[in-house]
Amino acid sequence: NPRLATLIKQLKTVSGSIMGSNQSRSNYRIELHSQIFISGLPNIFITINPCDLYYPLVIKFAGVDLNVDDLLLNQMPKSHECAAIVARHPVTIARFFNRLISTVLSTLVGYNINKYESHPDGSELGKIDAYYGTVEESGRGALHLYKLLWLA
Fold it and tell me: Which of 107, 110, 130 shows the shortest CA–CA distance to 118?
């Protein structure tokens, strides 16, 4: 049925822009296959999965008065309190994740997220020719990053 085929095509087009949908993941695979066709197989695969429940900076970003420069274990909130803080501040957790990823990418990979450019001298891993990455969330909502790197 041609009308049904047209409807399915339109649904795929619309759902491709919905983050996390099957069609958006299919679009990511197409992008990745294109990059592999251009650059070959990637040299490095990185997963960054910070534990936001027990990370002192997360608690600090959430507004808890915490001296992270001189932190003792007994100054940290209990684990159930940390979980409650994280649950109450999802935007803060996303901003922390963004800051952490920006720092890792600029230090390790030599990429400036704000300027969308690589450092001319390369990085700790060498000169980066290309990269591809996606951010996903775990079952409990914690963000993590998968990144593929192609070295020059």
Answer: 110
The pLDDT profile of the chain, 152 residues, written as one tens digit per residue, is 899 989 888 888 887 777 778 888 888 899 999 999 999 999 999 998 887 777 777 777 777 777 767 766 667 777 788 788 888 888 888 888 888 888 888 888 887 777 777 777 778 888 888 889 888 887 777 889 999 999 88
How far is residue 118's CA from residue 4's CA, in Å, rounded to a whole number? 46
Q: Please give the Cα distance from 103 to 110 (Å, whole number).
A: 10
Which contiguous run of DSSP H or E holds residue 39? helix 22-39
Please report, for the chain, the start and end positions of each structural domain, with discontinuous segments joined by +.
1-40, 42-151
126 pairs with which residues across the strands? 123
User: Cα separation of 61 and 89, whole Å?
Assistant: 9
Please state the φ and ψ torsions of residue 50, each to the nearest 5 degrees: -70, 145
Q: In terms of C-beta density within 10 A (0-12 exposed, 13-18 middle, 19 or more buried), how is residue 85 classed?
A: buried
Residue 131 φ/ψ, nearest 5 degrees: -150, 160
